Amino acid sequence: MVHATAPTAVKNQQLLFVPYITAGFFCVMAVLQLVNFEGFVNSIEQYHLSAQPGSIILAVTLIGLEILAMPFLLLLWMSRLGRWFSASFVLLLPLVWLFLQLWAAGRGQTLTNAGLFGDLVPLASGTIAFGVTILLAVLAVWSFCVLDGIKAWRMR
After folding, report:
1. Looking at the domain assignment, is residue 91 inside a domain?
2. Residue 8 domain-assigned?
3. What is the pTM of this model?
4. Residue 21 resides in a domain
5. I need a labelling partner for 148 at 20 to 30 A (CA). Which of 14, 30, 85, 141 fits?
6. How many CB atoms lie within 10 A of CB 5?
7. Could you tell me the pLDDT band of residue 99, with boundaries at 50, 70 and 90?
8. Residues 6+ apart with CB under 8 A from 39
9. Across all residues in the chain, what is the average pLDDT?
10. Range of the domain at 91
């Protein structure tokens, strides 16, 4: 039977704003991507990773990672397995976006919209999109450390 468990106690309460900012960042990204999903899929297609079905799957996966990472960041009660997955998604999401940015840069592509904020806030690939991705990664790792994500991975 699955039992909800309390989140681990935060050692430094003064840094609790970091996971909340990260959760807000993820939430804004997910909402903007969902508002114009077709435009978001078109942005993902620009990376030329796969054809139309693959782009839709990647777009849905990215939005799913953003949404499923939030319970860990918001210190919600959940099962240990759920906490393990949510904490993992906090770190996986920036890695996927970083891979996409490096993929485009490595192929010499200049995208009209990197897709980080969907189609409503176009962010061209390059220095700014890469900087936003690095900011996302720093916030995610910092949040993971503040919330003691290693304990979430222990499953005990």
Report:
1. yes
2. no
3. 0.91
4. yes
5. 30
6. 12
7. very high
8. 113, 118, 119, 120
9. 91
10. 13-154
- Cα–Cα distance measured from residue 57 to residue 120, given in angstroms and rounded to the nearest whole number: 20
Q: CA of 42: how far to CAs of 46, 83, 112, 145, in Å? A: 7, 32, 11, 34
Q: What's the rounded mean pLDDT across residues 132-155?
A: 92
Asked if residues 4 and 83 have their Cβ atoms less than 8 Å apart, the reply is no
Structural domain tally of the chain? Answer: 1
Query: Does residue 156 surpass a pLDDT of 70?
Result: no
What is the per-residue pLDDT for 155? 66
Is 112 a member of any domain?
yes
Q: Give 52's Cβ-side CA count (13 Å radius).
A: 2
The DSSP bridge partners found for residue 5 are 78
* Radius of gyration in angstroms for the set of CA atoms belonging to the chain, rounded to a whole number: 16
Q: How many residues does the chain have?
A: 156
